[in-house]
Design a protein that fits this description.
There is one protein chain. With 203 residues, this protein is of the alpha/beta class. It has a single domain, classed as Nucleotidyltransferase, domain 5. The chain is 38% helix and 15% strand. The C terminus is likely disordered. The longest helix is centred in the last third of the chain and has 24 residues. The chain has seven helices and five strands.
Length: 203
């Protein structure tokens, strides 16, 4: 079943950036965020929330978004920073870092979810499940997801026992078992509960 073509933005007639993050619920690795400004007439029937797309289509769309957007950027916050400021603050900081790098300053920002902090004096609005409602947020979700996946594949080469090429740092049973067996790496978020209680109970 085909989904509806997403509108390019929420507010027409202003320069609007869509923002989204990837990796918030992971046990390991940085959190990534992207900011994307699309042309006002942008239309793409494939574009949707990155979680609804195949890996192949995500990378195909990444190329298309980078070529056709007016501006785009990616922001990164490390696992160490996440431990220092917590994952919610880190997710918002990653979005701010992406916005800081845009070659065009937005006049309005739309953010996936329900939490954000002001970026300079720019008007903003949060939209729950916005990555399935607006093309600029969906585009940001695709960039954040694919660039983070690239980083987790790169880190997998250093730490193959955690299978980050498959789980991308998320909370799979195999990932938790690898932490129990091998211990955490410098890329694990020590402020997260890395192990299930079942793996740590002395029965």
């Amino acid at each position: 079943m085909k989904h509806l073509i997403l509108p390019p933005c929420l507010k027409h007639g202003v320069i609007e950036a869509g923002c989204d993050e990837a990796g918030r619920g992971c046990l390991a690795g940085p959190v990534y965020a992207a900011a994307v400004i699309l042309p006002p007439d942008y239309s793409n029937e494939l574009l949707n929330d990155s979680k609804q797309l195949s890996e192949r289509n995500r990378y195909k769309l990444r190329d298309e978004i980078e070529q056709n957007s007016l501006a785009w950027a990616v922001g990164i916050v490390s696992a160490q920073e996440i431990d220092e400021i917590n994952i919610l603050n880190a997710s918002i900081l990653a979005m701010h870092r992406a916005l800081d790098q845009l070659e065009i300053k937005p006049e309005h920002i739309v953010v996936d979810g329900n939490r954000f902090k002001p970026w300079h004096d720019t008007e903003w609005q949060t939209i729950v499940k916005g990555d399935g409602k607006l093309a600029n947020i969906a585009a940001a979700s695709i960039l954040a997801k694919t660039y983070r996946d690239d980083e987790m594949k790169r880190l997998h080469a250093e730490y193959p026992q955690y299978a980050w090429d498959v789980n991308k740092g998320y909370q799979t049973k195999a990932h938790r078992q690898a932490i129990a067996t091998h211990g955490p790496t410098p890329h694990h978020r020590m402020s997260f509960r890395l192990l299930d209680t079942q793996l740590t109970l002395d029965l």
